[in-house]
What we know:
The chain is of the alpha/beta class. Helices cover 49% and strands 10% of the residues.
Amino acid sequence: xxxxxxxxxxxxxxxEFRPLQEEAMDAAYAGxxxxxxxxTGGGKSLCFQVPALASEGMAVVVSPLxxxxxxxVDFLDSCGVAASCIHSGLDGAEKRIIxxxxxxxxxxxxxxxxxxxxxPAFMEYLRKVPLSFxxxxxxxxxxxxxxxxxxxxxxxxxxxMNFDGIPVHAYTATATSPVRExxxxxxxxxxxEILVGDFDRPNLTYSVLRQNNKKQQVLDCVERHxxxxxxxxxxxxxxxxxxxxxxxxxxxxxxxYHAGMGDYERKRNQEAFTRSETDIIIATVAxxxxxxxxxxxxxxxxGMPKSLEHYQQEAGRAGRDGLASECVLLYSKADHGFWRRxxxxxxxxxxxxxxxxxxxxxxxxxxxxxxxxxxxxxFGQPFLKKECDACDVCLDEVDCHxxxxxxxxxxxxxxxxxxxxxxxxxTTLVLAGANDERIRTKRHHELPVWGALSAHHRNDVRDWIxxxxxxxxxxxxxxxxxxxxxxxxxxVLLGDESPRLLKPAVRKPKGAQxxxxxxxxxxxxxxxxxxxxxxxxxxxxRGKPAFVIFGDATLKDMALRQPQSYEELLNVQGxxxxxxxxxxxxxxxxxxxxxxxxxxxxxxxxxxxxxxPNRSEFAKARAFEGFVEGQAxxxxxxxxxxxEKKAYSLLLEYISERDVLESWPWVSHGERSDIVKAVLAVxxxxxxxxxxxxxxxxxxxxxxxxxxxxxNEELKRA
Length: 718
Ligand code: ADP
């Protein structure tokens, strides 16, 4: 196993690299500059954290927000990686501790805000510490071409000059080619390794619904995800408040978040969400940069964002842990007009770029083409699958009109006859057969297309026009959105191509549920609930987000494998040595209790169950009798109908409950004396260290048994 993979397993508990992680880690470890572009949830953080741990010296990570830094440091801490962050919120004592740790060179990863690296005194300070490399997270913030430019990131241009010879690595989730080039140029990266990941997020199911009853549509989605984390984006503060009230009144745990709230309340709500104390956060787009929560199961946009870059970033907050999650966008053409009006104040060239992006976003909402394909191609990558199986289009959830071709031909004919002088509203009136004064004045009621779609609702006709624009058959131009037929539109008129026009009805997406079911197939959800409850309890005790203890993907794997021992726990994804030592016992106990049917209900036990001890109590009592008689573990297991693992865990319980001091007959005298010598040499901190010290010759079970007896001895002396 490569040293980087070994460290990843030991500290983070992951067996396999995600795509491109290995290449990115190799580049950082080899000391060459790099730019890594990976979608949200791709696992960028590990790309610099693992090589930082493997390299000599300390890595400095630049991150835009204090809350992100804190979460990362907490997470690294829980994995046993020495990390810290310096930010404006630290008090004197905290600063002194970090100062001491820096002097002692005991920090492997230091998180800082970009502004700090511009402070000369801080730079001087850093110069005294041996550095491995700089890692710039959210690196697109340095580029004017990106969608989230931050002036403070410009300070990072000086890094290469001020820290000669120290490699710089940049990481981002959104970077089109110009942004990529700009990042490399701004940071002065020297022939960097450029790695661009696959932008598809197959675990996300995308769907677009036409808005009709917005609140009910949001509620439908929320109810598909009962007790799960989700974000609902609303376009304004007022709508955030309304939606939060509505969802709370409907019995869901939901809190608002927007820039108009006081700092304290906003922070409190964000923390409640991060720590899974509330399920849903209703927010304006102000929310999100500071969110690193891996188990967000749904993101709903109750209005259309202004670009696909924004959509990808916001929707991309779902499912970072790789588990099935849902992204729903409620579309109304009014959103398009709303954004156009807001953009009107921009200067000419910026305006046309912004309107171009807005039109692409609108196209995404109105086209009937695989959503994964559209997103991936927008970000400059080919989409090679035929169908994604994870969007409303491929899952056949969108209802297309059976007369799409005929309707489209009527619309396009009308636009052609009107001679490229009318916008969507006027064209709708003509097609709908309105008897409007303007129409009569222009004698358009005498045209053959007048009233051609009068059998349909005007709103639907207007909507189809937008869909034809979105699908590229019509073009809108100028201040008045004058319509004209494009070349592909001409093919429709000739019958060579057929658009897919949506039926007005709105349907509930079923695919997301199906995908979700598939992901959790074979997993005992009762056990998952118990594990989640324990996780929440531990997180609350520590005042930390739940995912710092274990992510959902880890709990899922745990529920699948149902480990019975520490060794088996180490095979679970996301459990490294430190987490195994810190939380292993508690979670093994939950699994054990669940398997033996304990604590299944909080209701009063029935008189029958009160009278009789349950199955596991019987087994335990019998096993203890066997241990008193000095029976071997295997013997106890077969007599009591237990697995050997279960017998072993009962033996540990027996040793601890009965204050047993003697490890014989379960461990031979020779082995015991070797284990005691090893304890004297390397201490009792880590079982793995003891195991290695003993040359891997003595089983973990024997080590545990001797340690348990030694603990009793110590307690007795105390
Ligand atoms: P990004 O910064 O690219 O959005 P993160 O670094 O936050 O992604 O990783 C997303 C989630 O995936 C985290 O919970 C992380 O621990 C997990 N993860 C990262 N690498 C792996 C891996 N190799 N195997 C399993 N899970 C991983």
